[in-house]
Specification:
The protein is an alpha+beta fold. It has one domain: Alpha-isopropylmalate synthase LeuA, regulatory domain (Double Stranded RNA Binding Domain), CATH 3.30.160. The protein contains five helices and six strands, in the order H-E-E-E-H-E-E-E-H-H-H. A hairpin with a 4-residue loop joins strand 1 and strand 2. The longest helix has 35 residues.
């Protein structure tokens, strides 16, 4: 649905990633370059963060990078994290090179119990985790952009007295708000 609403979506990709585990303090330090593409712009963001594990450090590092721009990101949390290793598909002598699939489940902090599922698969546990996190945050950013666009489309349809378009846009908006409340986003938009 988001593809049909937005002409240009945000794309997130991490090409280089460094991880340092501090066993004494039981925390992970990550440093990476995040490529954020929208329209014809490509912004390279250097992010360094510490967390209670690699996914915590990665997830919070990316969220905090975009929180000022996409305020709905503060209304989500990680609900579940699943790692599946397919040993039978390993191509290494000791079966240590098996494909790993990471699935993350996000839940909105609003009253909704709806969840969003994202997964990524590679031969690297870390790379699979990075892929799933990037897919999740990319979706959330694009969902907020779609809510903003739909709000504008609804207003424009009302001005033109196009009840049919207004109804279509409202139904699309209803689908997007099942997971995260965009009330604050819409309030900020109405102030402008």
């Amino acid at each position: 649905m988001i593809d049909g609403i937005l002409e240009q979506k945000v794309s997130l990709q991490i090409n280089s990633f460094s991880l340092k585990e501090d066993f004494k303090k039981d925390c992970s330090h990550v440093s990476f370059v995040l490529n954020s593409k929208k329209d014809k712009t490509n912004e390279k963001l250097k992010i360094t963060n510490t967390g209670l594990g690699v996914i915590d450090a990665l997830f919070t590092g990316v969220i905090e990078q975009f929180l000022d721009t996409y305020i709905s990101l503060r209304d989500i949390k990680l609900y579940d994290f699943v790692v599946t290793v397919n040993i039978k598909e390993s191509k290494s002598v000791y079966n240590t090179g098996a494909p790993v699939e990471v699935k993350i489940v996000l839940q909105g902090t609003s009253r909704s119990n709806n969840k969003l599922y994202f997964k990524s698969k590679s031969n690297s546990l870390i790379k699979s985790g990075i892929g799933a996190v990037c897919k999740a945050i990319e979706y959330l950013i694009n969902a907020e952009l779609a809510v903003v666009q739909l709000s504008k489309d609804i207003k424009h349809a009302e001005e033109r007295q196009r009840i049919d378009l207004r109804s279509t846009y409202l139904l699309q908006l209803f689908e997007l708000v099942k997971f995260v409340s965009y009330a604050e986003v819409i309030n900020e938009l109405n102030k402008k």
